[in-house]
Amino acid sequence: MMGTLKEKAVQAANKWLGPSTLDEMQELKTLKIYRNGMIFTWLALMVAIVAQLLAGARLPQIAGEWLIFMAVDIYILGAMIKAGIWSTRRKLKADWPTSLWASAIASVSTLAFGWATSGTLWGGLLTAAITLVLCLVCFAILLQVYKIRQKKLEQEPEEKNDGE
Amino acid sequence: MAKNLQLKAARAEKDMTQQALAAAVQVSRQTINAIEKGEYNPTIRLCRAICRVLGKTLDQLFGEES
User: Fold this and answer.
1) Which residues of chain A lie closer than 8 angstroms to B26, CB-CB?
2) Full pLDDT tens readout for chain A, 164 residues
3) Between the N and C ends of chain B, which has fewer C-beta atoms within 10 Å?
């Protein structure tokens, strides 16, 4: 269904705006520009959310930014898992030690943030503990989904040619 | 990436400018320039198109220089 929708969108774009004028190198350059723009936007959204929270904004006030940020994150996560990609870096493996490290970093960041916003260490500790547990659970699920997906992609059978 | 001097030489043999070669294989001049400077690795499809226009083999234009 998404393939057909995408095809229809491309057809409509070609009809109203004309076909692409880019050659293969220019397409690649354009993709790099989009990538850099996306990274900048993602970082800017994160900074905006954190800055507003530190300045005392309540959650409904940052709902817009938060929703967009989460939608982008979910899209990236889903697309990477679908493509059988866990990480772009060799040291960030799809295993428990890496998941533990990542969860610990998220937990410590939440502790610092909770401490900064609530003014008390206890408030930060509680959110840090919850973050650690939630991250570990999410990683456990994602690791399973990723391994299943990667196995499926790696074991895709070769196409048989006519006459074989 | 190393410069593609074979491509430049083959183009000169045919007395073609980068613009002319680009038009013949339907890419921009900057792409041909980037390939010759070794800044861009073309797809196999483009490699074949360039070879066809210049009358050379893949190995002659895009093989590694000994």
Assistant:
1) 23
2) 666 888 888 888 888 898 888 999 999 999 999 999 999 999 999 999 999 988 988 889 999 999 999 999 999 999 999 999 998 888 888 999 999 999 999 999 989 888 887 778 887 888 899 999 999 999 999 999 999 998 898 887 777 766 55
3) C
CB of A132 within 8 A of CB of A102? Answer: no
pTM over 0.90: no
Please give the ipTM for the structure prediction: 0.81
* Domain range list for chain B: 5-62
User: Does the CB of B40 have a partner CB in chain A at under 8 Å?
Assistant: yes
Q: Kindly list the residues of chain A whose beta carbon comes within 8 Å of any beta carbon in chain B.
A: 23-26, 28
Residues 6+ apart with CB under 8 A from A132: A103, A104, A106, A107
Instruction: Specify the fold of B5-62.
Output: 434 Repressor (Amino-terminal Domain) (1.10.260)
Residue B28 touches chain A, beta carbons under 8 Å: yes
Of B28, B43, B46, Cβ closest to residue A26:
B28
Q: How far is B57 from chain A (nearest CA, A)?
A: 21
3-class state of residue A91 by DSSP:
coil
